[in-house]
Structures are given as structure tokens and as C-alpha cells.
């Protein structure tokens, strides 16, 4: 196993340094995103991708992608106090979380999620951010979709009533996780 007894690090994706060619998480869309799209989207300032590697190794064990966005307040079960008149709230959107098949089952996904929470907390402190939002991938059938939804719910994400597979967590929840991490 490539993570046993090795220090791991998470850093911003650098296509010149990080080996994305051999990455395979078992979901073609996630593999292809890293191999074909992530570099271009970073260059064009549409997203930021962070990768996990083992010290001294340029192979990617896992990654996540984040970008900023807005959400319509009507998607929430209850309108938050102080919502702007235009009805949109600032969010951090979690685009992908993927772990290489060789590293799955070792807690890499949870470590990457904690990194997302840390980033979200910092962004919220600097610019204001109401929530962390994601869309659960439905690739692989209903069982895979249900498993992914359950995984995100275990972190505290809540479902949007208006859209199956769209989930959110308020920044208050994110800060509580950062202050009292359960690993």
C-alpha cells in the first residue's frame, strides 16, 4: 500500500510535477477530470485542485476540486436572517473528491474532506461564505449514488429538498468540525 508508513501531503495541483496519467479511482468521469480538464480550469481561474501525494512520490493518491459560487436562498428549507435582497448567498462549491483505487479504504477521502473544511473556513473568514455545496455524482448506478450520499451525510451534509444529489453544509457547521475534528 503506497500510504503505509509514509508521510502524506496535500498541495495545489501542479501538472508539471504531479503524475496524473496513472490516476484511477474507478470512476471514468473523475479520472478524466484530473487527466484532461483540471489543468485548463485552474489556468482559467475556474477552480482550484488539491492533490494528496506521499512524500517523495509524485503519484496522486487523491484529489479534490473547489470553486466559488452562489446559491438561491429559496433552495434552503429556511431563509437565513440577513439574506441579501437579491436572494443569493455566497458558497464554496466542492466539485470532486476522488481517491485512487490503490489508496481507497485508508481514510484518504476523509483527510481530503477535512482539507476542504479547512479551506472553506479560511475562505469564509476572508470573503464571507454561507455554505459548502456539492453535487453527488450519480455515475455507477443507484447503489453507488446512495453510498456516496451516505458518505457525505456522515460528515454532516444535508440534502436540498429541491434537487436530488445536491447537498450543503453551513459554514457554522464547517467551523464546528474544524474546531472539534473527529478522526
TrEMBL record:
Residues in N-acetyltransferase domain copies: 8-172
Q: Which UniProt keywords apply?
A: Acyltransferase, Repressor, Toxin-antitoxin system, Transferase
The keyword Acyltransferase is assigned to this record = yes
Which positions are tagged coiled coil?
Answer: none
Q: Which GO terms describe its molecular function?
A: acyltransferase activity, transferring groups other than amino-acyl groups
Q: Which InterPro entries match?
A: Acyl_CoA_acyltransferase, GNAT_dom
Reactions catalysed according to its record:
glycyl-tRNA(Gly) + acetyl-CoA = N-acetylglycyl-tRNA(Gly) + CoA + H(+)
Q: Identify the domain of life.
A: Bacteria
Q: Does the keyword Manganese apply?
A: no
SUPFAM superfamilies cross-referenced by the UniProt entry? Acyl-CoA N-acyltransferases (Nat)
Signal peptide annotation: none
Protein name, please?
Answer: N-acetyltransferase GCN5
The organism named in the record is Maricaulis virginensis
